[in-house]
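Fig. S4 source data, part A: sequence.
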Amino acid sequence: EEHMQSWDMAFKDTKDSAFVVGQVWGRKGADKFLLDQIRDKLDMPATLGAVRTLTARWPQATGKLIEDKANGPAVIQTLRGQIAGLIAVDPKGGKEARANAVTPMIESGNVYLPHPRVAPWVQGLIEECAAFPNGAYADQVDTLTQALIRMGKPRKIATSRPGI
């Protein structure tokens, strides 16, 4: 029913910097599926390349949520004329509050991750989630919560006539 990308950007590609994380999510009814992920320490040109790569790999993911922090605004400004659907997201509340907001979706069994044999990177995501909020990084958690919060919002149904 819906596919989208979710991105958490970082400023630098140094040893101590945060990771750039891009995820592709799908939704069918109440169920949400993590389909793909890019996670690496990237500079600005490589970050732009990562967004282009995930967009080419998943053209059906027409919405691209990009956290409006770090390099996010620069990425949007640079790619807006090349890639449609770039949406700046101003996260509300702290990281823990956002994680708590999506916990019911996860606890109820409506969030699916690929098996580590199919997607070996998923093990790192599971470990980061298990260590949250005390782990060294929370980039994958931020990207995941951004997507799940957006996908959990009720959809407006387009009508042909006002008032229907």
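Fig. S4 source data, part B ends here. The longest strand covers residues 31-40.
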